[in-house]
Design a protein that fits this description.
Elements lengths: L9 E2 H8 L3 H9 L1 E2 L5 E2 L14 E2 L1 H14 L5 H15 L8 H18 L2 H5 L4 H11 L3 E4 L2 E5 L8 E2 L10 E2 L6 H11 L2 H8 L3 H17 L1
Antiparallel strand pairs: 1-4, 2-3, 5-6, 7-8
Length: about 220
């Protein structure tokens, strides 16, 4: 367990709700799979946590999943994405290239470079222009803060929400930013006590903290 401290840990249900990627996609990308024709496909990238029947993601894995899935939703093939992840890793020098700060700023040019190197014009032709690629990258990594090139804080509902995912706190689970209490805890207390005010009094926190947690958990449940 000590090896997991500071990197965040999420199960497949957490990842599905936070990224909206299908559970089967998450499992295949994290563990690899064998197709019906007998072809084995390795994991999309090298995950931080050794996988078993119970799929687990680190914070970096979670953001890598989110960024790659943004392209998959735009109909980029999984095969092409695998090539892009592999080569982008070499170019950036990181094992989670799509979630790095450099990909956020230089991602469009990196993808264009990969296209020229591998002779895969379909990668560029999927998009109308370089600006569209840049928009997809920025949207998939917005509200993320970095320590150098490495992501270290994510605000899934935006900066005004007051809710963060920080791998150094509460194993990366969503917390109310000012109190550092998990949103699930505060929202559960609000339901059990029958009001935001009572839950706030119980935990000796501002009502705003509980309201933020409730709003976030409601948003998360709709994404499930």
């Amino acid at each position: 367990m000590n090896a997991l401290v500071g990197i965040g840990i999420y199960d497949i249900s957490d990842a599905q709700r936070l990224t909206q990627a299908p559970r089967q996609t998450i499992r295949r990308w994290l563990t690899g799979y064998t197709s019906s024709t007998g072809v084995h496909h390795p994991p999309m990238w090298d995950p931080d946590i050794e996988q078993s029947d119970a799929v687990a993601l680190s914070f970096r894995d979670l953001l890598e999943l989110r960024a790659i899935y943004a392209f998959r939703k735009r109909k980029v093939s999984a095969q092409l994405l695998r090539k892009a992840v592999s080569r982008a890793s070499e170019i950036i020098g990181a094992d989670h290239p799509f979630s790095s700060a450099r990909f956020r700023t230089d991602g469009a040019s990196i993808l264009l470079q990969l296209d020229r190197e591998q002779g895969e014009p379909e990668l560029v032709n999927i998009f109308t222009n370089q600006r569209e690629m840049k928009t997809i990258i920025e949207q998939s990594l917005r509200d993320v803060e970095y320590d150098g090139l490495t992501p270290n804080v994510w605000r899934p509902m935006g900066r005004a929400s007051g809710v963060v995912l920080d791998p150094s706190r509460s194993f990366g689970q969503p917390i109310e930013e000012d109190t550092a209490i998990p949103t699930a805890t505060l929202a559960s207390a609000s339901r059990a006590e029958g009001s935001v005010a009572r839950a706030a009094a119980l935990y000796e926190v501002p009502r705003r903290a509980v309201s933020r947690a409730v709003k976030f958990e409601e948003w998360l449940s709709k994404a499930a």
